[in-house]
Specification:
four-stranded antiparallel β-sheet, seven-stranded mixed β-sheet
Length: 117
């Protein structure tokens, strides 16, 4: 069974940084593009960034995150990372890792990021 497990969330002050990790396990064929989404209270889930298996950035969405968030992946460790800098209160959300594995949408359980002074 393929599992995505996120980590790295927490409470941080405005202007601070966090690095979120998502590790994939249980797969028997190649993992394709991976993405980070976020969902704030009362809002729809939105795409933050995606990265292909060979490391090309497909999307760096969520206009408010542009220039502050960077997605990367380490295929040897089956991990995708979201580095978030200069965090703002509006970045507060539950952050999810996602991949489409053999036509099946797979999500992690989410990791909470709270930006507050």
């Amino acid at each position: 069974q393929v599992r995505l497990v996120e980590s790295g969330g927490g409470l941080v002050q405005p202007g601070g940084s966090l690095s979120l990790s998502c590790t994939v396990s249980g797969f028997t064929s190649a993992i394709g593009a991976m993405s980070w989404y976020r969902q704030a209270p009362g809002k729809e889930r939105e795409l933050v960034a995606s990265i292909t298996s060979n490391g090309f950035l497909v999307t760096n969405n969520a206009d408010s995150a542009k220039g502050r968030f960077t997605i990367s992946r380490d295929n040897a460790k089956n991990t995708v990372i979201l580095q978030m800098n200069n965090l703002k209160p509006e970045d507060t959300a539950l952050y999810y890792c996602h991949t489409d594995y053999n036509g099946v949408n797979l999500w992690g359980q989410g990791t909470q990021v709270t930006v507050s002074s």
